[in-house]
Structures are given as structure tokens and as C-alpha cells.
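== Sequence and structure of one protein ==
=== Format: two labelled lines per protein ===
==== Data for this protein ====
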Amino acid sequence: MTIEVRVPQLPESVADATLVSWHKRPGDSVARDENLVDLETDKVVLEVPAPAAGVLADIKLKDGTTVTSGQLLALIEETAGGAAAAVPAAAAAPGAAALPGAAALPGAAALSSAAVAEGGAKLSPAAKRVAEENKIDPRSLVGSGRDGRVSKSDVVSYLAAQEAPAAAASAARSAPAGAAAPVPAALAPASPAAPRSLMPGASLRGTRTDQRVPMTRLRARIAERMVQAQATQALLTSFNEVDLHVVNALRARHKEAFEKQHGVKLGLMSFFTKACVEALRRFPAVNASVEMSDIVYHEYFDIGVAVSTDRGLIVPVLRDADQLSFAEIERSIGNFAARARTGTITMEELTGGTFTITNGGVFGSLLSTPIVNAPQSAILGMHKIQDRPVAVDGQVVIRPMMYIALTYDHRIIDGREAVQFLVTVKQCLEDPARMVLGI
């Protein structure tokens, strides 16, 4: 019996998706619910599982194709009892070469060297692109992600490990036999067979090449939204600084009990989320958005938390953050981050949001001006914590200080509100009891 594999129903806000990579080839056996192909949308990568066990008979669309809901992707020949019997690739796809890298199968593009072979590791889209560019057999890669998924960093580490011995061997071959010490390149005679680029007087940089690759859908969407925000909003940024010694002391004093009771570490993000919620209560315009000629004041607090992944920056949303405990916030953020990096976060979790927090400090940023995540009207930027001398009660002391930045849409948020919003965040973090007492 022939089973059709079709594009699943895409979320209402997503018109189409891009077929990123097939994980099976015609003739390969497949198990029920095994991932066959990755589809990339503007925000997430969707996996298309096999609806039945059998043999992949035909692939209808090649990598890079734009697809819509319900479109036919492939055909599976279901086997008796659901047991998949392997058949030769040539038989499943007449006219196609059975060996990898040979001519393309009818109706499908030639599978790249980074396609995942039967039993091989599963590559993330970013890892797949790097593997393709460097002609790496995916079966030689070991993944560090969940279920052995290979990330971009895994591929980069593999490349570094491969290049190190090759460079050492090359240096050894170039050294004169029996020499006590390597001869400097500038004094070594040029080999008659040396390429022109290595001849005396020529550039030692090697071939100068450019590589053109299309933007991923996520990167293109990020670019579109950033340009849209800059073009349609009157953006301005205000700054302040926060002394985090009280928060750090609280975390140090209660971290063991907190983790033992809740099963999650007590981080900074829960404090910042709670402080922002308190500030948003006092200054509703910062939690509002502009629609045409109207201002929409949101009477709930859905806080987006920016997460960096191999594919780019995404912003999962903490729904009703004002009703979440510190432990629930920390647990949710940790869960978002883990699933965002493995590509299993859902579209619903990335939709909406009334205000966003982004933390450039994890990458070492000391100060920056974040861009608003439209159609929101403001975003808080966190930065690196740095010990600095500050004046406290007439004395100079060393404290863990962080610069914070609020970029806001000046069309609906006045400078007074923006500054007081930051002051409120500062006060809540420097004296967390305010958040408990509501003062």
C-alpha cells in the first residue's frame, strides 16, 4: 500500500516553509514516526515524521523548495505487518545511481554529502550547511546535543581536529631533511612545482574567494523585522546602572535550598523578569503597542526572553509572567533555551509577547542599544556584570554593576516614562523586598 507524506498543517501565521534537508533516500527503510525531512519556517524548524513503517519509494521535492500546507513530499510503500524491508535504491528509483554523490534521483535533487545516512547522526540545519560546505561525511560526526543531534559547534570542532594534524604534517614535509631547525619560509628556496601564488613576491594569503549562500528563513525574517522596527518606530534608548550585590547575596544564600526544593538553579533572569513586570504595572505605555492610529494597552504581561541559537535569535514568550513564581520562570526559560537549540520549540511559544528582555551580557557586552521586537514598543537590554568602584554613603566600595538599557518607541512612550521605568527596575533589583511588599 502506498502512503503519501504531505506537509503538515502550518500555523495560521505561517504561509509557507522551506524544505531544508531529507534524512532518508529512496529505497531506505523507515520506521513509523521517524523524522523524514526538516521544514524551516520564519521561526522554527518542523520535523515531518513518517506516517507508517515501510520503504521510502519516491521523493517528490528537493532541498530548498518552498512548500505549503498539504503539499505532497514523498511516497512510502507500506510493508506487510509494518516491517520495513530494504530494497536497492536503484530499484526504488529507476535511472538513479545507488552510490551517494551520483546523479540525482527523478524528481529530487542529488543528496548532498551532509545528508544523514541510515543510522547516522542527525544534523541541525546550521551543522548541515557547514558540513556541506566542507564536504564532511555526516557519519564521521559525533553529536553533543539531545539524542545525539549534531550542532554547528560539533562540526567546527571536528574541522579543527582534522586540520591540526594536517597542518603539522604539511610543516614536517616542508622542512629540509636532517635539518636541526625549521628553515624560515622567507629563506627557503621556492620549489619549481610551487603554485604561482607561492612564488617569491606573490601573495602568501592563498586564493581569495567569496562564498554566496542564501539567508535562512529565520535570518531573513529577523532582518525584515529589524528594518521594519527602525523604519516605522521612533526609537530612542535610555540607560541606567544596577548594583547587583544584594541579588547576588540572595542567590548565594538560598541557591542550594532553592535548587533542592524546585529542581532548578536560581538565576538572574527571574529577578529581572519580576522587576520588569513591576515596572510595567506602573508604566502601562511601556507594555503597549501601536496599531494604525490606536494605542493598545495590554492588561497582561507576556514577557519575551531572547535566546541565541545556531540559526539566529528567537524570542520565546513567558505567558502571564506576573503569575509565575521565581522557580516557574527559571524552569520555563531553561526549557525554552534547551528546546530552541534543538529545534523543538513550538510556533505558539514564539508568538505574541508584550515586552522583551535580551541579555547581551552572556556574550561579554558591556553596553548596547537593543532593537525593539515589533510590534512591541520597548525592550530591556541586560549587560555584563562587572566589578566597579562606586560611591555608597560617602564611601568608595567595589560592587557588581550592570548597565541596563531601555530602547522604546518615542511615539507613545515619553522620556519621563522610560527613565522612571528603568529607575523602577533598578530599585526592585537593588532592594528585592520592594517586589514582595509592592512598594
